[in-house]
Design brief:
single chain, 490 residues, alpha/beta, Amidase signature (AS) enzymes, two-stranded antiparallel ribbon, 14 helices, 36% helix, globular
Amino acid sequence: MVKSQWSFKTAVELSAALAAKQVSAVELAEDAIARIERHDTKINAICVQDFERGLAAARLADAELAHGVKKPLLGIPMTVKESYNVAGLPTTWGIPAYKDFTPTEDALPIARVKDAGGVILGKTNVPLGLGDWQSYNDIYRTTNNPFDLGRTPGGSSGGSSAALAAGYGPLSLGSDIGGSLRVPAFHCGVFAHKPTFDLVAMRGHTPPPLPPLPSNRDLSVIGPMARCAADLSLLLDVIAGPDPLEAGKAYGVTLPPARHTEFKDFRVLLLDTNPVMPTDSVVRGTLEALAANLAKAGVRIDRSSPLLPDFAASSRLYMRMLMSFLAASFAPETYAGAQTAVAALPTSDTSLAAERLRGIVLSHRDWLIADGGRLRLRAQWRELFKTYDAVICPIMPTPAYPHDHSDDQETRRIKIDGRDYVYPDQLAWPGIATLPGLPSTAIPTGFAPDGLPVGVQIVGPWLEDRTTLKLAELIEREFGGFKPPPMFDD
């Protein structure tokens, strides 16, 4: 095969090439399809193909381009996470009982992508119920990391991150409640953005067989994934905004501009570890290297601040509120088992595992008390961001780990510098932005000695998504970003 010049171009670059008539939308779609057909038996990122309709959309895009039509995504090939409703395609969330569930209506973000001219070629794989940092299920099987097929690509948007890294189009859509945008980006060396909570309407990103009603689904967001920071902004602008079926939403795509446009004006708080969940030497090393580079570029960096909320306390609160939300869909016998287990818990047990268990059976009264704690946490972050423009910190404690599909995640272990830690406790790092609903941009920063990608997240103030995205662009421009996986760089 002759290597295509388009396979790893960004959406911004492809838009310019389309406008200059250097390539057609059909050629771009055919190039992405050819890569999927050539490589995806090894990666298994695309669980549902939609090539015929994708090529039809590409032909329509070419006709519109010929008539001078301007749309932000016109002719750009892309993928979307399996969890989004796409009319005529199955939406299963990896749940075998719903393998034949086929919505008749596009999710609102999908409709916005199509209206903007995006060419959707297929849906990407997910874990069962979107509930893991590994992407496997009994319907579509396992997705592998393009940098090491024996390791996770991340989850729950793992199919999307793997597809991006392998060159199956420059854009994808994912979702995030426990790092499901940022973790896959970290593990596959791509970019992702977790928007401010409720910035992007989620109608149609709904577990089957629920109807596609307007909902903000507590803690959960949907957002863009890409191979460069500018593409994140491009796709975010397309999908952001309130649901027209919801009255009274006061904000949408009119976000404030980035606070700064040059390194020298940024003040950043950098975190590399915490008492709840340490990071390994590779992750600490990439943070140290980035901090040194940013300092040389003129960024003012602090390593600690009394303004930073109590990480251990907020992690415990996040575990309770996350599991309270997720447990609404648990089977009655699972819920009853959790009630029995919580009754036996000593009050002195404040481990994250204990807090997750308590969260499953949280009463409405206790949830309201917890929500009050979240409001106070948001106020603390507001105070911090009067001094700092962004917080840069880890996404996960280690690079991608080998596949581990043992049933009980609470019994899984993750090795950090040779010591075992409880697998779900890793939630603490993505939770730093999830619980207060803050925007967070995941960026790649290089590679571990064994060739696995590493990266960081840039957390910013409420509704100041453009600040984290701009800092991500500056870092990418100055220090580099995505690099294709060697085994698929063809």
